[in-house]
Amino acid sequence: MACWLLVLCLSGAAQAATPGGASCTVQVLSVAAAQGDDQGNRPEAGPWQAVTLPDDWSRRWPQHDGTVWYRLQWQRDCAAGQRMPVALTLRSVIMAGEVFVNDQRLWRDSQLSEPLSRSWNMPRYWHLPEGLLNEGVNTLWVRVVGLAVQSPGLGPVYLGDEASARQLYEELLWTNRSLFVLNLTISAVLGGLFFCIWVIRREQRIFGWYAAMALCWVLFIANILMTSPWPFSTTLMAARFNGIALVMYVTCFCVFVWRFGGQSLPRLEKALWLLTAALVALMALAPDARVGNAQLVAVLSTATVFFLNCLQFQLHALRTRRPEHVWLAASLLIFMLAGAHDLLIMLKLIGETPAWTPLTSVVTTLCMSVVLGLRHARSVRRIERFNLELAEGIERARGELATTLEREHALALTNSRLQDRLQIAHDLHDGLGGSLVRMMAMVEQASTPLQGPQFLSMLKLLRDDLRQTIDNGSSAGIKVPATPQEWIAPLRHRFTQLFDELDVTCTWHFAAQWRTPPSALQCMALTRLVEESLTNVVKHSRARHVQVELQQPQPDSLELNIEDDGIGFDVLAVQRAGVSVGMRSMNARIARVGGQLEVVSLPGCTRLVARLALQREVPASV
Amino acid sequence: MPIQTTVPEPTLLAPVLLVEDEPLIHRRLEALLLQLGYRPEALLFASSLAEARACLAAQPVALALVDLGLPDGNGIELIEEMHATDPGQAILVISAWSTEDTLLAALRAGATGYVLKERDDLEILLSLRSVLRGGAPIDPFVARRIIEELRPGAAQPVDTADGERLTPREDQILRLVAEGLGNREIAEQLNLSRYTVECHVKRIYRKLAVSSRTRAIHAARTRGLLD
Fold this sequence. Notes:
- The structure holds 2 protein chains of 2 kinds.
- Helix content of chain A is 54%, strand content 17%.
- Chain A is α+β, with helices and mostly antiparallel strands.
- Chain A has 3 domains: 2-172, Jelly Rolls (Sandwich); 174-386, Rhopdopsin 7-helix transmembrane proteins (Up-down Bundle), CATH 1.20.1070; 474-613, Histidine kinase-like ATPase, C-terminal domain (Heat Shock Protein 90, 2-Layer Sandwich).
- In chain A, the strands form 4 sheets. Chain A has a 6-stranded antiparallel beta sheet with strand order 2-1-3-9-6-7, with no helix packed on it. A 5-stranded mixed beta sheet of chain A has the order 12-13-14-16-15, covered by helices on one side.
- In chain A, β12, α11 and β13 form a beta-alpha-beta unit.
- Chain A starts with a helix and ends in a 9-residue tail after the last strand.
- By secondary structure, chain B is α/β, with parallel strands linked by helices.
- Chain B has 2 domains: 16-132, Response regulator (Rossmann fold, 3-Layer(aba) Sandwich); 140-222, Arc Repressor Mutant, subunit A, CATH 1.10.10.
- In chain B, the strands form 2 sheets. Chain B has a 5-stranded parallel beta sheet with strand order 2-1-3-6-7, with helices on both faces. In chain B, strands 4-5 form a two-stranded antiparallel ribbon.
- In chain B, β1 (16-19), α1 (23-35) and β2 (43-46) form a beta-alpha-beta unit.
- Chain B is globular and about 45 Å long.
- The chains are: A alpha+beta, B alpha/beta.
């Protein structure tokens, strides 16, 4: 079909003879054709019919597949005594052929039986050796092998001086071959490029459709450029394949245009695919004798679809007025005008002029690529802008988050202050409050009025409780000191300074590490015990030596030992008299944290031992 | 009181300025000072910042006992002023229920020690006597805080002179204090005299005051308040 299309499209000025140089011309005397015999031999006495070139024998012999011989008789018409070299240019031989000059073979296609070589779009040029030529009438024999369904025959033949024959040949080479090579290369490169983009980013369907369209176009164009039958086993198979490529091309083109324009036409698309399937089936399954008709149907249907689509997109672009749509519409318009022009040539509705499609399709392919490129650039720009917006959004969100966090922080701070206050209230209630209540009870229940020293002792106890509450902040917040030495350090320092002033020696034995750390409350109780008893030693004992010792004989118990060599006191009497409220209070306090206090006092040796049971991993709770 | 301190000591610093607004405490401290051997005429009294300033303007004093909560302001202001006038001035803070931070602030302002009002008379008496002998009271918690602040190699403003950091010896002493050792024990352990240990502690206090001033200047510079 395509060969047929292009033969008709190609520049067709039949130049059987043209004025040659200034002094010589070549004169074609007659052109005749006759069917060859079954072996393709020249019919010596066959019925030669006069024809004009270009010739399509299927009009004369519609069923004839095989060989037709063309006979051109010509002579040089020169001024006296002059000889001119003669050159020959053939535009096309459909499909394959052989050329003789005066019975001497000049050239032969490599395949003159199926699959045939494809010389249908291959211009050829020869310089005719002087030795082959006669003085008078010469005969040019061209044997053409073709199929009736493919408009077989011989294209225009030019005989003349070398310069003009070569010039013609070169023009033909440009329009019939180089332009298509260019077209194919550009389409293949752009198709490949967009294919790669699509492979990497499958969401970009448009690029995929463009690549498919370009691929079909390349396959279609390849038919024009191929000169060997490979890879097809028959000429008709190549023709069928070519038809299918065209159908697929137009289908891909339509889908691409719709996707590009953002048009959603589900029913139309369905119909298009049905039509495509039908045409493909037609091309694939038509009987050999009907392939030509099938091609015509396919070409006309696809051309119709193509033109309709180009037209509808003009309207679409008018509606959307988006620059890229307008660009595509413009390039489609060029496409459409060229296509229409060439279709009209093909249908012989206008005279034979050079086809526009080969040139315009290069231009429009480039245009479409530019449009796609623009679109790609635009989406990249959109992404960049989006990134910028995203960054701003994140910045804003961070700002808001910071504000929120600040507010939450402030709230948490207020809350923790409130908690602290509650905790202090709790501690005051538990520690100082408890002591107060106990002492009030003591005063009330006392059988004899209490004396000043007793009151003083009570008040001091309260004071020390208060100091502990202040120093520790809150019992829930304090941590147990990491080592026994760290725990005792403040007390040790304070009393060491006092003992130094009083010239009392004091030894401290504390392990470097806890075996099991006491709870925070136990720590506080022990602290108060040490403070209280050492204060007593300083005030009352007149001791010369004091020893403070902390031991953990078992991992789950703790023993605090305070010993002095002072005058001692009557333990029972002191407790009964209630002078030292502090010591009694210590007793109760140690008991409350799960321990017991043992006091032994003799002159020269007073000893306090507090034993606590420890619990592992248990938070302070009493 | 089973203590034999009524013998006047030859090294008493005089005169002494007592800045205290509470009459009862005032009387208590006065009694303690008299017990230490002071003559009544060696004691000067003020019950507000204004009175204290007037008194200081009239005559220099050898020792100042300053309460922090005064009717017309915080005693720390007074300590700063006195320290600015004479960096060698002995200043004791008499603190009521103050927290660790308040005490440290007073030491930074230039105080050379402190006594806690809440302690028993005997304990205060012993502290005062120690100070009058040239001792410098220090506590494990104060020692720990100072180590954190003046540790050699700690991040410091660039323009801090080396003199405001702890020497290795001072660092050693502070660590022993932090462990709870008394000055005498420290002296024994380091083979120093107790007097030397106390000198070290006083020098540490001076560094603390200088360091806090340097830090203030540095802060002011970074905020553009000073050129």
